[in-house]
Specification:
alpha+beta, SH3 type barrels, 4-stranded antiparallel beta sheet, 2 helices
Amino acid sequence: MNSFTIKAFSFAIAAICWGAFSHALMAQENAFELKQPEVPPPVTKEKPLFELLNNTPQKTNSNTNNKWGSNPFFKAPSVPSAPEQLPVATVPEPTHLFEYKITAIWKVNDDFKALISGHIVSAGDRINNIQITKITNKDITVKQSSKLKTFRLGTLFYDFQI
């Protein structure tokens, strides 16, 4: 046998096999029935699109069963409830937050003076809402609403710390 005969023979076997295979495929395709789409009757009014919008009920996304099953992503709308009455917080009296820095202390005659946040003060003076009660060579004592507190030279303090 020459090569031409072998090629012709193998081609014939392939054609026979393909014919049987394609016949089986055609039989499967004919087993299914095609359904015709439902076409609504034609509307003969002046504004057919508006009639379609107004007459057809709106479909909502619901969790009802349909031909595909229930919708797993459907979330039922929740009805908001009346807001709860929260107790009204009492507002504390506003405090004035002032920052004070003791920059320098020096002695003049037999009395000490201090430089506090740019103010030159001596014992008995007031800055905002604090009173300077005592000044020594290394610290000062301040009073705010009957509370006393002592701070050293170079200290940064606030009125709420007293």
